[in-house]
Write the structure tokens for this entry.
Amino acid sequence: MNNLIKDIDFISAEEAQVCDFKTTEDENTGKSKKLYIESYGCAMNFSDSEIVASIMKENGFDTTSNFEEADVIFLNTCSIREKAEQTVRKRLTDFGRVKRRNPDLTIGVLGCMAERLKEKLLEEEKLVDVVVGPDAYRDLPNLVLAAEDGIKGINTFLSREETYADIAPVRLNSNGVTAFISIMRGCDNMCSFCVVPFTRGRERSRDPFSIVKEAEDLFAKGYREVTLLGQNVDSYKWSPEENNKQRLNKKGEEVSEIVTFDLLLEMVALVDPKLRVRFSTSHPKDIIDAVLYTIKKYDNICKYIHLPVQSGNSRVLELMNRTYDRDWYLERVSKIREILGEECGISSDMITGFCSETEAEHQDTLSLMDIVKFDFSYMFFYSERPGTLAAKKYADDIPLEVKKRRLAEIITKQSQLSLERNKLDIGQEQIILIEGSSKKSDAELKAKNSANKVVILPKGNYKIGDYVKVRITDCTPATLFGEVIEHNPTLS
Ligand code: SAH
Ligand code: SF4
Ligand code: F3S
């Protein structure tokens, strides 16, 4: 996994967690051709690359970590900010050089940038052979075959049904312990700054039984944590009628109940008490108490909620079309604290310098941060995206230096708050799941606690995938340090 912080408009206080892009690993199952995929953007995009790898595997491709030896290179792209698209353009120049040496190479642009730019990408980037949007990955083998015959191809059809529910993802960059499961696609919100509804299409929920099956399969293979992914998981909704499917329960009775997010969480939590369940992203307007009570009820549902606020000022939130205001957000946080207590991790996304944001309104974001005390945040300055509501309706009128100065202020604030929150953990006993080696030292391992914080512990005889009970002894703003009290503690 590449942990490179290249995107200067994306700065996280949790620096160790920033993953700029992921590539495929070497896999040799004797297939005749090699596929290299580089993925940018959010977890949903990384998860899509695993579906793409699965589709291509069925069609004669092994993955490689070396793009120089690939027959096909896919760039799975992100459009969320201008910088994300610039990075991809630069990368296409690198791959163009390889293609000049090897004209048989097929280059494909997938994902959100493909969807946003469509034919324009083929016109502007002469060395690109195929352009495929997020709902058209089943068409990739055909398009690649045509490209091998010199025919360029594009499919950016956005579907109302596609969820790839039947495709078993090929796990890429896997630690063998934690995995993503996409539970829905698209987004029906219209946040005025956001390009996602245009690149990912209408919201649709995946069959819950296929989600549970995927979680069961992962558990059987030794995975110990799944993260349920969606742009707005709280609006997950699935019913057999809507999906024209007949479902029978174990007793053979027809199931007609609507599965909402709280019920889905419960279904996945019941797979096994040793399988941790996380989810992302929650929307402040949609997170209901039933979800909070379900989190409370199951020890294996992690006590952590990513609840992006975007701004602490109600006028700005209205311009952003977030459909909640400052008071609503603070009420939801109080409810989280009331039901799940102080130890529940809460993180956020924030944007500085949105259209017409005043200095006083920026101060409201800082004051909201002080009230909520986020454990960490992903922080950005506003980047206007063509075609969005904000681009059409409002002037992008905050000078870049002001956007960046405000961003620096919220980053400083978040770093102080992360340290303050982490200090509260010192002395506590926590059950953590070991995910890998520590980047800094071979003598240490890296784990996560329920609140999604990284915990470093001595290597001992512990293995990746083990649960360990530790006492937290020290911290930085980004990391906790623990001493082991018990190996494989009882998980209720
Ligand atoms: N569905 C999630 C967000 C997905 S995009 C939600 O509603 O919270 C991830 C984050 O990127 C957003 O939360 C927002 O903070 C940021 N972002 C989106 N569009 C942006 C833009 N035009 N400029 C800067 N940041 C943006
Ligand atoms: Fe974008 Fe808003 Fe949808 Fe999140 S909820 S993906 S920010 S439109
Ligand atoms: Fe980027 Fe698309 Fe995700 S725009 S953040 S890759 S949904």
The chain has three domains: 2-155, 178-423, 429-487. The chain has 14 helices and 23 strands.
